[in-house]
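Journal club prep — side note

Before the paper discussion, L.F. wants everyone to see what a predicted structure for a comparable chain looks like in token form. Sequence:
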Amino acid sequence: MASLRPTWTIYHAPRSRDCQKALKRLEQAGIEPQVVDYLSNVPTERELEMLVMKLGIKPEALLRKNEALYRSKYKGLRLNDHEWIKVMQENPVLIDRPIIVRDHKAVIGRPPENIDELLG
């Protein structure tokens, strides 16, 4: 029989303060999410497409545009959604984080209060 409890996942970078705050907020709410270090366990293109869909945003909106790599190589480029997904899959440092997923919905947990949208 399938569990009725929500499935939680957090995509994060362990050294990121924002990610640590988001994980702590989940734990304080009694949630033990599956933790994915997306820099060492890079999401596939399909997984990134699903994340973008759950976030309800365009792939380009998931980019960390303050990263030096983005500014030097991608700033000003006009790529389609699939191309941006491929860029993130090949350069996971460009994926905004943390991403918190509860079943079929997701939020970017910065600020950590964004997680409250999923807690209700």
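L.F.'s comment for the group: The domain at 8-119 is CATH 3.40.30.10 (Glutaredoxin). Keep this in mind when we get to the figures.
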